[in-house]
Specification:
single chain; alpha/beta; TIM Barrel; two-stranded antiparallel ribbon
Length: 213
């Protein structure tokens, strides 16, 4: 049985569907180029209602220190997900200064892409393995692209990790079986249209992930 993170939540209905379906994490995207981007004021209402019911994750991409500090001052976030090219030093600074859990994403295409993850061993709490974005893509994630799951099957992680990239209600059980993932992350795979969550797909994804193992 794997835990589930539903990323790119923008409505109360999607948040409630995630909670009711048993998801462990609700992700909110603070990146203007994403179709799932959410304004801080709107996110604040959702995060307040989620408190104590599901862990909340703020996804940011190469943020300025001031931006993250303002975000954490305004929002009671449980986890910051860094989805850009943030350094180990930045991750460590953010965790120490604010006492927040840090999830760092790593784009994966081949086995060698795992080589530099060890640099973050003392700086992060969670690692997220996502497919490298296609050439020309504006988004670092949420592109409905999967990588070769066999690459992570024998990975000896120094911290808990999430599997992301191209997961859907139809393939998540297979992905968990092949990789041994304890946490799976989905965004576009539970959308009816780009940027809009489908409540039935959220429920189906969570069922498929929890049925495995």
């Amino acid at each position: 049985m794997a835990q589930v993170k539903i990323c790119g939540i923008t409505t109360q209905d999607a948040l409630e569907a995630s909670i009711e379906s048993g998801a462990s994490y609700a992700g909110f995207v603070f990146y203007d180029k994403s179709p799932r981007a959410i304004a801080a004021a709107k996110a604040a209402k959702l995060i307040k209602s989620a408190k104590g019911r599901i862990q909340t994750v703020a996804l940011v991409v190469n943020p300025a220190e001031s931006f993250v500090e303002e975000l954490l001052f305004d929002l009671p976030i449980d986890v910051i997900q860094l989805h850009g090219e943030e350094t180990p030093a930045f991750c460590a600074w953010l965790r120490e200064r604010h006492g927040v859990k840090i999830c760092k994403s790593f784009p994966i295409e081949s086995a060698k892409d795992f080589d530099w993850t060890d640099e973050y061993e003392e700086a992060i709490d969670l690692a997220l393995f996502d497919a490298k974005p296609p050439k020309g893509a504006e988004l670092p994630g949420g592109n409905a692209v999967a990588f070769d799951w066999r690459l992570v099957a024998n990975y000896q992680a120094f911290c808990p990790w999430l599997l992301a990239g191209g997961l859907t209600p139809d393939n998540v059980a297979q992905a968990i079986e092949q990789t041994g993932a304890k946490i799976v992350d989905v965004s576009s795979g539970v959308e009816g249209q780009r940027g809009v969550k489908d409540l039935d797909k959220i429920a189906a994804f969570c069922r498929a992930a929890s049925a495995n193992g």
